[in-house]
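Structure in, sequence out. Go:
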C-alpha cells in the first residue's frame, strides 16, 4: 500500500486520519519515522502552522508529508480561540481546561455560532498544496459525550442533535472539518495518480 507521513503529535488526530485513509494509504506517524521533538507552531494563522509542521519534516527527512492545523472560531468571541485553540486556557492546559474556559466565556451568551476550520498542508515532490475543511455548528452550554477529543463535547454540528463527542467516529469523520479537508486531499492524490 502507498505510504504518507502525517506530521502530528496528537494521537486523536492520527487515529482519525488513519480511519479516514484506511485501505487507501498507510499513514506513518512521527514516531514511526523516529521524530520525537516538539515542533514550535508560532505562526499567527492556521494555514501558517500547518505549513510549519509539514515543512519541518520535509526539510529534516526529505520526505513527502502532510500536516493538519485546526482551530475553533467562535463568532461571539470575535473568532477566538482560532489559531490559539490548543493553548486557549494557557500553556500545557488540558482539553478539559479549554472546555471550561470556553463555557465560562460563553455563559449567558445568545449567539453560540462557531466553526471548526482545518487546513492541511501537503508537501509532495517539491511542491506544496493546501486544503481546507470547515464544519459549522454551535457551542452548547454543558459538555455531552465521551468520544472524540478537544472541544468535541461542547460542539454541536449544524443539522445534528448529537455533539461530536456523542456521535460514532465514522459519523464525525464524514462531516467534520478534518474529514472534509481530507476528502479534498484524497481527491487530489487520486487525480495525481497517487
Ligand atoms: P499537532 O499540532 O501535533 O497536530 P495539536 O493538538 O497541537 O496537534 P492543533 O494545533 O491543530 O493540534 O489543534 C488545536 C486544538 O484544537 C487541539 O489541541 C484541540 O483542542 C482542538 N481540536 C483540533 N481538532 C479538533 C477536533 O476534531 N475536535 C475537537 N477539538 C479539536
Amino acid at each position: 500500500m502507498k505510504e504518507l507521513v502525517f506530521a502530528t503529535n496528537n494521537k486523536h488526530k492520527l487515529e482519525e486520519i488513519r480511519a479516514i485513509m484506511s485501505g487507501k494509504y498507510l499513514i506513518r506517524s512521527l514516531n514511526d519515522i523516529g521524530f520525537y521533538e516538539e515542533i514550535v507552531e508560532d505562526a499567527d494563522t492556521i494555514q501558517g502552522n500547518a505549513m510549519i509542521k509539514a515543512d519541518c519534516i520535509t526539510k529534516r527527512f526529505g520526505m513527502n508529508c502532510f500536516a493538519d492545523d485546526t482551530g475553533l472560531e467562535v463568532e461571539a468571541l470575535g473568532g477566538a480561540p482560532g489559531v490559539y485553540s490548543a493553548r486557549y486556557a494557557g500553556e500545557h492546559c488540558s482539553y478539559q481546561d479549554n472546555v471550561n474556559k470556553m463555557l465560562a466565556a460563553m455563559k449567558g451568551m445568545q449567539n453560540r455560532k462557531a466553526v471548526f476550520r482545518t487546513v492541511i498542508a501537503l508537501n509532495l515532490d517539491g511542491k506544496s498544496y493546501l486544503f481546507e475543511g470547515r464544519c459549522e455548528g454551535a457551542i452548547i452550554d454543558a459538555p455531552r459525550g465521551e468520544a472524540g477529543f478537544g472541544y468535541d463535547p461542547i460542539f454541536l454540528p449544524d443539522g445534528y442533535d448529537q455533539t461530536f463527542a456523542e456521535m460514532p467516529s465514522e459519523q464525525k469523520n464524514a462531516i467534520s472539518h478534518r474529514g472534509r479537508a481530507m476528502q479534498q486531499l484524497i481527491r487530489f492524490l487520486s487525480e495525481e495518480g497517487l
